[in-house]
From TrEMBL:
Transmembrane segments: none annotated. Belongs to the BROX family. InterPro entries: BRO1_dom (IPR004328), BRO1_sf (IPR038499), BROX (IPR038898). Residues 5-188 form the BRO1 domain. Residues 229-249 have a biased composition (Polar residues). This is BRO1 domain-containing protein. Residues 216-249 are annotated as: Disordered. Gene3D superfamilies: alix/aip1 like domains (1.25.40.280). It comes from the Eukaryota. It holds the Pfam family BRO1.
């Protein structure tokens, strides 16, 4: 939980920058900021931190014998929402070169990975139903999870191949568990349900995921008071003094 809290703190710092620092900058200065400091990028980074925090919470739920499938599905859906909003914030920004392109690939990779987790747990819950329809929807959800998981692996490779080059770290936490469970459970459930029901009973499109509000919020961060030396009138006095000194020369 300590690690999850640190992600909340990081999200809070970035949220503060968007809400309290950027609005105080002159319009011309804001326009001339590098794209890395654009509002959309800062918002994406804040949401990215929350998404990683929820990922930690989901990993803890997976390890807990007391956590229900409903809890795991909610966390997976919340994680998906974080990455989806992060992607929405940067998709129209000019991140075509260097770190910007790599950042875009990271967000897309983690977004698709979160989709796989959300559809996996949604499928398991649907499979607990007692009707042919619920079982058919479960198969469709699990198949979607498997497809998104395969796509996420390709995006991971693209991320690592994008300059600056990086190594693909070994799987850990949530995805280490799901990388084994998603293909195995999907294959099993599809086979069982297609043995029980006709092909027409199996949905070909994935069911809609449930909508949850984000429980994890950025930590509230209040920046320290602005030092008097940064006040406008003091800056003008300093500039005037500097000009006088240069004039005397």
């Amino acid at each position: 939980m300590v690690i999850s809290k640190k992600y909340q703190m990081a999200s809070g710092y970035l949220d503060c920058a968007v809400k309290h620092v950027l609005p105080q900058l002159p319009a011309e200065l804001r326009r001339n900021l590098p794209v890395d400091l654009a509002e959309g990028v800062l918002r994406a980074l804040s949401l990215q931190a929350l998404g990683q925090g929820v990922d930690i919470q989901l990993g803890m739920a997976i390890d807990s014998a007391k956590a229900t499938l409903a809890v795991k599905r909610r966390l997976a859906c919340e994680m998906l929402k974080c990455w989806q909003q992060a992607q929405d914030n940067i998709m129209n920004l000019p991140l075509a070169n260097g770190w910007g392109e790599k950042h875009h690939l990271l967000v897309k990779w983690k977004y698709v990975e979160a989709k796989a987790a959300a559809y996996y747990y949604h499928g398991l819950i649907l499979d607990e139903g007692n009707t042919e329809k619920s079982h058919g929807m479960a198969v469709a959800a699990l198949q979607a999870a498997d497809e998104y998981f395969k796509e996420s692996k390709k995006l991971c490779e693209a991320f690592n191949a994008s300059p600056p080059l990086s190594r693909n770290p070994p799987l850990w936490g949530t995805m280490k568990y799901l990388s084994e469970k998603i293909p195995k459970d999907t294959s099993s459930k599809v086979r069982i349900n297609r043995d029980l029901y006709t092909h027409e009973r199996i949905m070909e499109t994935a069911p809609t995921l449930p909508e949850f509000s984000l429980a994890l919020k950025p930590d509230e961060y209040q920046p320290p008071p602005v030092d008097s030396s940064w006040r406008t009138e003091n800056i003008k006095v300093t500039q005037t003094h500097s000009n006088n000194v240069n004039g005397d020369k």
